[in-house]
């Protein structure tokens, strides 16, 4: 059977009971003694106090039961059984001293020899018979003498038993008393009978010391057993054998247990035996106590038994010291932790905890966790009290109690930190240090919000005086560490509360006039930030936010009055708001209102832009005090979106005519809506000719040089109207120069130019013919160039490229064979006039065509052998 069941949790199903185990040795105790012992266990107990005389070899921390708060150890009065009676012969031996006993033995032996010799001489009549009688009676006398001496160890053992049984408190025995008994009878303590009695006494005593069943150890068992063992003078191997014997008894009782509760009690008792035995024999327990071999118990199970019992004992020790930790207030008095309403906890007690931990063989990790749990409990209670007050929605005066509870936590934390920094802190109990909520009631994500509420309440209280003191800032950092809040979480809460307090302080400074009266507004604001430990950059953001709120209130009716402007300027000066920030705020807030008006004006369309809309635009443009550039940028952004929509529809059209129709709609929109909108924004009359967009100096020089080309190209002359038509020209300040690439803009312009140059007219009977457009279309083309943002050079290039393309196509037909005759020259001149291409460009195209044709003819002639090298050289010399 696996006896590890003593150290593990028993299954819910009852195990079958085994009546015997083949590997258990027989009980070395005498049957009568064992029966007497078991009978004594069932008798009524009387309680005695165990002596707490401290052994020099045992740590003082094990004397836990000596304090008044420990229960009195229960010892059975007949734990060793009743007194034993001596037989008549043993009583005779007991009455003799060793000297008398030896002399008596000698006399008995000598008397027997003399009597035998005398009887043999008397009745035998010869010397030989006398010698035989002496030998016979001498042998009998020797037997009597041997019997007299052989019962001495038993008599000594009986007297030892009776001597120990006479003590109400066996712990007061000392080694000298035991040695005196052995010396009285002239025997050694190693005598088999005497040593057996010693082992029997030790076994009974250890059994009585171990608490039965589910009772916990008191902590003094190890010291008491070691002291008693040393008093008996029993060797460790013999004592260890008795511990193993007790284990066998517990094992048998476990097998005989009738229910699960009894089984659990025996298992607990076996664990306590293992723990106490391990501490009694120390490092030698690994080979003196063969638990694994005898009971099939693993090393891990032994460690489990030691750990569990050590935790219980250390828990009792810690609990006895920490009973007053829930009281307040906490103060440091010298080296003492003063708790009002309880006794002081001094350094000696912390040192005693450390010694107890080592004596109980408890790991540092477990000891630290237990001590931290002890210090965490009063903190949890304070936090719970503060939360109850916070959530009870009581009157404001009760809020101070929240801070009081949190101050208790902080004072307790400071106390533990001071103890951790004590010069002898390495001798203190493990776990002395800052308070931590890990592993406690508030170590969960569900409780973090409650802790944040408490932290926020403490921040409010810290700023209640209008300034953040250094000690309060330190306390907040400690509270953050205790609550386990992240740096960002704590800073966010502190920033939120400090921002509100800063706003309140700022409002008071403005309303009282202190800020306005200050010589240096910046210094006043900086001092306010320093008092509150507030970030200056966050303060600047608050200033900007306040300014924006005031501005939004001022423009609620769609315009800024002179009074509003003065108030805003005063606010800007008091809050030291940079001009760029003010302009950005106006551009954002006023710009959004102006953008709304502009969009409504644009949405009215060509037919809806009436006097009412013009009035609304002018009011928004001048009433919101927007800079002209800002207003134009807002209008430009909205108008260009409409232009882009026209462009997209023009590109998606199926024919050039349809594309031109969409472009004409855009030109009309620009003339009738956008031009009026720009004039209203500038405050100008719509009849005033629009100003030409600024032209760079380099571009102006180029335009002057291209005047000839404008006059030479017929299409360009039509696009470039006279000065008398400038009054009807649409605006060009808002254009698509930055929204479309140059190629897309020139392609759109070219599309409408081709529409202007040619068109298709439908007549009845399904007939179509091509015709030319009038000059009015070229005027619209000019406006299109302005909308597209094309420069004069780009427009000239478009016109010239189209003229060159038309001339080249027809010239290639005329010069198909590459021969340039007089008739063909006249025909090309007529073509050049019809197309409207300048002569120099026409000659360049003609030369290019003839050169290409001639080169092809020469290559053919050379290939056919009709042209020699000499002739080629002559042609080259002739300039061909």
Automatic annotation (TrEMBL):
GO BP term, pick one: protein import into chloroplast stroma
Family annotation (Pfam families): Tic110 (PF16940)
CC annotations in GO: TOC-TIC supercomplex I
Domain of life: Eukaryota
Region Disordered, residue ranges: 683-703
Amino acid composition bias (Basic and acidic residues), ranges on this chain: 694-703
Record's protein name: Protein TIC110, chloroplastic-like isoform X1
Organism of origin: Coffea arabica (Arabian coffee)
Lineage of the species this protein comes from: Eukaryota, Viridiplantae, Streptophyta, Embryophyta, Tracheophyta
């Amino acid at each position: 059977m696996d006896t590890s069941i003593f150290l593990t949790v028993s299954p819910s199903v009852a195990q079958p009971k085994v009546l015997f185990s083949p590997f258990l040795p027989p009980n070395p105790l005498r049957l009568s003694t064992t029966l007497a012992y078991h009978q004594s266990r069932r008798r009524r107990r009387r309680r005695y106090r165990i002596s707490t005389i401290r052994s020099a070899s045992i740590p003082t921390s094990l004397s836990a039961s000596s304090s008044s708060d420990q229960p009195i150890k229960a010892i059975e009065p007949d734990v060793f059984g009743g007194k034993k009676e001596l037989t008549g012969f043993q009583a005779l031996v007991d009455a003799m001293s060793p000297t008398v006993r030896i002399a008596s033995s000698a006399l008995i032996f000598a008397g027997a020899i003399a009597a035998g010799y005398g009887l043999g001489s008397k009745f035998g009549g010869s010397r030989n018979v006398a010698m035989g009688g002496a030998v016979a009676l001498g042998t009998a006398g020797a037997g009597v003498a041997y019997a007299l001496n052989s019962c001495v160890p038993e008599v000594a053992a009986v007297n030892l038993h009776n001597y120990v049984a006479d003590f109400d408190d066996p712990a007061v025995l000392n080694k000298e008393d035991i040695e005196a008994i052995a010396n009285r009878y002239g025997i050694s303590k190693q005598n088999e009978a005497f040593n057996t009695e010693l082992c029997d006494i030790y076994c009974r005593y250890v059994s009585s010391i171990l608490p039965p069943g589910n009772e916990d150890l008191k902590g003094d068992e190890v010291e008491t057993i070691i002291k008693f063992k040393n008093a008996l003078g029993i060797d460790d191997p013999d004592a260890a054998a008795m511990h193993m014997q007790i284990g066998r008894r517990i094992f048998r009782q476990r097998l005989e247990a009738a229910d699960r509760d009894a089984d659990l009690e025996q298992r607990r008792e076996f664990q306590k035996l293992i723990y106490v035995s391990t501490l009694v024999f120390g490092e030698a327990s690994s080979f003196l106590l063969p638990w694994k071999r005898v009971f099939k118990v693993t090393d891990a199970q032994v460690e489990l038994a030691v750990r569990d019992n050590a935790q219980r004992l250390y828990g009792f020790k810690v609990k006895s010291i920490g009973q007053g930790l829930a009281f307040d207030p906490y103060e440091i008095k010298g080296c003492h932790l003063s708790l009002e309403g309880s006794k002081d906890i001094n350094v000696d007690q912390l040192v005693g905890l450390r010694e107890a931990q080592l004596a109980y063989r408890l790991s540092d990790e477990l000891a630290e966790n237990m001590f931290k749990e002890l210090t965490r409990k009063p903190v949890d209670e304070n936090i719970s009290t503060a939360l109850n007050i916070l959530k009870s929605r009581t009157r404001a005066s009760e809020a101070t109690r929240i801070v009081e509870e949190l101050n208790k936590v902080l004072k307790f934390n400071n106390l533990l930190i001071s103890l951790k920094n004590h010069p002898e802190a390495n001798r203190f109990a493990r776990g002395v240090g800052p308070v931590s909520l890990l592993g406690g009631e508030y170590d969960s994500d569900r409780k973090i919000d409650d802790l944040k509420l408490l932290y926020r309440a403490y921040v409010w209280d810290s700023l209640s005086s209008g300034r953040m003191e250094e000690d309060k800032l330190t306390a907040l950092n400690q509270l953050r560490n205790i609550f386990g809040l992240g740096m960002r979480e704590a800073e966010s809460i502190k920033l939120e509360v400090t921002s509100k307090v800063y706003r309140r302080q700022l409002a008071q400074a403005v309303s009282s006039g202190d800020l306005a009266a200050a010589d240096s507004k910046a210094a006043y604001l900086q001092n306010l930030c320093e008092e509150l430990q507030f970030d200056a950059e966050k303060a600047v953001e608050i200033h900007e936010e306040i300014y924006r709120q005031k501005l939004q209130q001022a423009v609620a009716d769609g315009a800024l009055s002179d009074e509003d402007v003065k108030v805003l300027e005063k606010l800007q000066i008091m809050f030291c708001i940079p001009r760029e920030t003010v302009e950005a705020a106006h551009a954002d807030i006023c710009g959004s209102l102006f953008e709304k008006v502009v969009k409504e004006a644009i949405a009215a369309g060509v037919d809806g832009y009436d006097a009412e809309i013009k009035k609304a635009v002018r009011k928004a443009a001048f009433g919101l005090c927007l800079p002209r550039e800002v207003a134009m940028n807002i209008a430009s952004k909205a108008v260009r979106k409409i232009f882009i929509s026209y462009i997209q529809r023009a590109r998606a059209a199926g024919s050039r005519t349809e594309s031109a129709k969409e472009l004409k709609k855009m030109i009309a929109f620009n003339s009738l809506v956008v031009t009026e909108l720009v004039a209203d924004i500038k405050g100008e009359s719509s009849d005033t000719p629009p100003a030409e967009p600024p032209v760079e100096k380099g571009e102006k020089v180029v335009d002057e040089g291209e005047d000839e080309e404008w006059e030479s190209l017929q299409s360009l002359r039509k696009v470039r109207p006279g000065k008398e038509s400038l009054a009807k020209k649409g605006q060009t300040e808002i254009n698509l120069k930055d929204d479309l690439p140059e190629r897309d803009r020139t392609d759109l312009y070219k599309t409408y130019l081709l529409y202007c140059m040619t068109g298709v007219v439908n007549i009845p009977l399904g007939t179509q013919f091509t015709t030319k457009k009038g000059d009015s279309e070229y005027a619209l083309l000019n406006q299109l160039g302005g909308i597209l943002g094309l420069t004069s050079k780009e427009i000239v290039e478009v016109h010239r490229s189209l003229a060159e393309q038309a001339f080249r196509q027809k010239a290639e037909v005329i010069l198909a064979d590459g021969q340039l005759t007089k008739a063909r020259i006249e025909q090309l001149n007529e073509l050049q006039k019809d197309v409207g291409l300048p002569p120099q460009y026409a000659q360049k195209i003609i030369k290019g065509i003839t050169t290409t044709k001639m080169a092809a003819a020469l290559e053919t002639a050379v290939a056919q052998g009709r042209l020699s090298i000499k002739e080629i050289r002559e042609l080259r010399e002739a300039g061909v």
